Every structure is written in C-alpha cells, then in structure tokens.
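User: For my dataset I need records formatted as: sequence, then structure tokens, nothing else. Please produce one.
Assistant:
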Amino acid sequence: MRTAIPVLLASLCLALALPADDNAPNAGDEIQVRQLERAWNEAEARRDVSAISSLVDDTLAYTDYDGSFLNKQEYLESVTKSQLEPDHLYDEGLAVTVYGNAAVATGVYRETGKARGKAYVHRARFTDVWIKHGTWRCVASQSTLIDKR
C-alpha cells in the first residue's frame, strides 16, 4: 500500500505535466461553426457567391435536395443561376458536434421566396461537414427535402 501512493502521485504529476491535446474540441469551435452556418444561410439568400466561396472548401462535395451532386464551382454557379428568389433562409434547429479539427452540423432549414413569380417554402434536413485548417471550411454538404404533409 505504501508503494501505491507514490506511484499514484507520480502518475498524477506526469498526467498534469503533459501538454493538452491541440485537437480537443472546445466551445469556441462549436460557436464558430454555428455562426458560419448562419452566415452561409444569409449569403445564399443574398446570392453572395464571394461570401459563400469563403465558407466552403475548394474540394466541396455538395449533394442538393434534388439529388444532384456538385463540386464547389458548380454549386456557386447554381446559386447565381437559380430560378429561386429566396427572401429568408434560416435554421429551425442546428446541432454541432466538434471532433478536434472536424465538425458535423445537422439540422433543419426553412427557405421561403418566389420561383417564377410564385411563393414557395422549402424545408430540408441537412448535414454539413466542416474541417479546420487554420479556418473552418465546409467540405461536404447534403440536404433532403422534408415532405409537406
């Protein structure tokens, strides 16, 4: 028993002396990804391709709710050429889980606006994958329309 206490104390001291894991998630990263998700919604509603481009990685893999698969350039072009004219795009629920330098954002968004002069409402579930290399960038995004039942 007497030798167990010094070994325990030595182990505790060693554990406290080790550097913290630089990839450990923190609340600041979660908040930042939440803010980036909201900034993306605002930029897409304004069709601000420059702002969107700064949020998504060059390797973006984007699967839209209609099943189309787009790279970054194709996605940015789809934003500018869309016949949809959104007036609001906001999340109805957003969860972010950070895994070191990666984060997964999931939730539901609602988009309202006009398409060819007629009002529309889209609700969709989404999953976005973010990677942090200096700054957070979305590398993959997928959305699925929710039935209007």
